[in-house]
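Go through this chain for my students:
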Amino acid sequence: MEQDKVFMRRAIALANESVQRGGGPFGAVVVRNGDIVAEGTNSVTLQGDPTAHAEVTAIREACRRLGTFHLEDCSIYTSCEPCPMCLGAIYWAGIKRIYYGNTRRDAADIGFADDFIYEELSRPLDQRRLPIRSLLHDEAQESFRLWMAKSDRKEY
């Protein structure tokens, strides 16, 4: 438990440093076997990249350093409850534990509200605010057939 606090304090320190550099108030660390593998901060506005959230940045760096896209033996400590995009990245990376400081309600209170995304995801496709339609399904299936026929594919 004390070691968890050390890692969370590092994520919080990264969030504070990010604000001082002009980034968003979010920091994250990926930890494996008691060691920090990677760190990340929110640099959306600094990089002009809406996917440059702290968790995604930390996951990308951890994968690069470890040479893998599977982080199943890792935990992530983040200064705030992950947004839907970051949560998706955490699940795709296979990270087994998430620790967070601020809640998504705390983030909403300072202008970082993502509840609309959670709400949108619960709606049927034809009832979402952002139009989403299937197009050229039969043609798109070819890449899936090629994938399934590939004997050396790396499973996710």
Remarks:
- The first helix runs from residue 2 to 21.
